[in-house]
Predict the structure of IF rod domain-containing protein.
Amino acid sequence: QNLAKIMEEMRANYEKITLKNQEELKTCVSRRQMQLLETELQSLVGNLRYGMQVEQYNGIILLRESKLKQLHADIQSQTLEYQALFNIKMELEAEIATYRRLLDGEEQESLWERP
C-alpha cells in the first residue's frame, strides 16, 4: 500500500509537471505567434504607408500633367495670337511703305513743278 501511494504521488507529480510543461509550451508558442503577428502587422503598416505615399505622388503627378497640358494649350494659343499679330504688323508695314512711296512721289512731283 505504501508503494501504491508513492506511485500515485509520483504519477500526480508527473501529471503536474506535464501540465506545467504544456502550459509553458502554449505560452512560448503564443509568444512566438504574437511576435510573428506583430512583425507581419508592422510589414503591412509599412506597405500601407508606402501605398498611400504612392497614391499621393500619383495625385501630384496627375495634377502636374494637367497643368502641363494647360500650359501647352496656352502656349499654342499665344503662338497663334502672336502669328496673327505679326501678320497684321507685316501688312501695316507694307501699307506704310506704300504711303511713303506715294508721299515721296508727290514731293518729287511738287519739286519738279516749282520753277
